[in-house]
Design brief:
single chain, Rossmann fold, seven-stranded mixed sheet, 6 helices, alpha/beta, 28% helix, globular, two-stranded antiparallel ribbon
């Protein structure tokens, strides 16, 4: 992800402050809603077929743990921060379903060869919009293509969005955050048109796209919920 931010340091501080809930954290409600929407639109048509799932930016493991409870298939969570991965293994490491649950340390921009061609579904756990630079997003999509099964696959994500062009005439917007005396690139917000064009140029078609102003991850910005198929 965007190396302007030290995610390992951020997770260490979170855990030292005992703000991780001791394994009691709940997954993102809106992302759980998106998973339920995906199941109603697509998964029901293939009832009985197991689906291996990859969670990118799995953090402390609560989303991967939730997905394992659905008994859809084997689940892998990948996060860049070793502290987050260790926490996930400790508190969310035991699968609640009949399929195994795994956690790995890794960077979404760097291919993990052992995971190639393994997954039917990839769930982006609020990771994609943290990729602010074009080259980061290109690497992300190239790796998605390699992680998905040769039979095809789908991607679910939520991304910070802007409904229209900014005042300066640019539709994209980089959000910045201050840590100490420095400012860091934090998230990248785009319009729906740009998001769709970006996905199509990277080999994905968007099957479901909803703009949610009520999901306010950032002040003055909404959120896109996306279900995409690999072309």
């Amino acid at each position: 992800m965007n190396l302007d931010i030290d995610y390992e340091k951020a997770y260490r501080e979170l855990l030292q402050q005992e703000q991780a809930g001791g394994g009691q954290l709940l997954p993102s409600h809106s992302l759980m809603e998106l998973v339920k929407r995906w199941r109603s639109l697509f998964a029901a048509k293939e009832k009985g077929c197991s689906k291996n799932i990859l969670v990118l930016g799995s953090g402390l493991g609560e989303m991967a743990y939730y997905l394992s409870s659905l008994n859809l298939g084997e689940v892998y969570g990948v996060d860049i921060a070793p502290s987050a991965v260790n926490y996930a293994r400790t508190y969310h490491g035991n699968s609640q379903g009949r399929f195994p649950l795994h956690y790995l340390q890794g960077d979404v921009r760097v291919l993990i060869p052992t995971l190639m061609h393994s997954f039917d579904l990839i769930v982006d756990h609020h990771c994609f919009h943290c990729l602010c630079l074009d080259q980061e997003r290109l690497a992300y999509f190239e790796n998605l293509q390699k992680y998905l099964s040769p039979k095809g696959g789908q991607l679910l994500l939520e991304s910070v969005a802007t409904a229209s062009d900014n005042d300066d005439g640019e539709s994209e917007k980089i959000l910045w955050r201050k840590r100490g005396d420095k400012f860091y690139r934090y998230r990248r917000a785009v319009t729906g048109v740009e998001l769709e064009q970006e996905f199509l140029s990277r080999g994905f078609t968007i099957e479901y796209l909803v703009y949610r102003q009520d999901l306010c991850f950032e002040s003055s910005f909404g959120v896109f919920q996306v279900i995409a198929n690999r072309c």
